[in-house]
Amino acid sequence: MRRVLLTMIVAVLAAAQASAQNPLNIDKVFEGDLAKSKNAIEILVTGERANRIELTTYHSLAVENEPSAAAIIERAVAADGAKALDKEVEYRGNHIYFGFYTLPTIKVNDKPMCRYIMYLNQNLASKKPTDKVTLVYIESHRDAHYVKSLIAKNK
Fold first, then answer.
1. CB 134, CB 28: distance < 8 Å
2. pLDDT in tens, 47-78
3. Residues 6, 9, 11, 13: is their CA dihedral positive or negative?
4. The domain containing residue 123 runs over which residues?
5. CA pair distance 125, 92, nearest whole angstrom
6. Nearest alpha-carbon partner for 105 in 142, 154, 54
7. How many separate domains does the chain show?
8. What is the pLDDT of residues 82-117, one digit of tens each?
9. Cα dist from 20 to 13, 96, 141, 146, whole Å
10. Are strands 57-64 and 132-140 parallel, antiparallel or unpaired?
11. Bridge-partner residues for 21, per DSSP?
């Protein structure tokens, strides 16, 4: 038990250190008022639970029935997406409907760490639109193909 707790603490500290050295615009979303809203569901998985699915960090925020959410999150995602090494983006009108971004890697414990952002604005869905916006940030040593398959498996 002590070993598991120590491993979790080290993983969280390493992720925090990496994030502090490479701040993202979406960090402000996860730390801001939207994440504290009664209409938001935030999930943060690190440590052993994340390692089981070959991730280091899984951080998601789903916000429903919050009119300002889409604009705030989209602005942050677009700013971080501008620095992406690779991206798949679908626009509806002048807004991002879906985006998957592969960000530049960072060093964590002298190992390269891959970083990904996934964004979905269900307000813009062509079939059954709902007032829901989802933001996901992932860190992993695995490639984008693996991460996409993991997300697709959990839809």
1. no
2. 999 999 999 999 999 999 998 999 999 999 99
3. negative
4. 2-153
5. 9
6. 142
7. 1
8. 999 999 999 999 999 999 999 999 988 888 999 999
9. 10, 27, 19, 26
10. antiparallel
11. none
Residue 119 CA to residue 62 CA, distance in Å, equals 10
Please count the other Cβ atoms lying within 10 Å of the Cβ belonging to residue 46. 20
pTM of the model: 0.84
**Which amino acid is located at 87 in the chain?**
K
Extended beta strands in 21-154, E state: 40-46, 57-64, 86-92, 95-108, 111-121, 132-140
Question: CA-to-CA distance for 33 and 67, rounded, in angstroms?
Answer: 13
Nearest partner of 41 among 61, 58, 57, judged by Cα: 61
CATH number of residue 73's parent domain:
3.40.1000
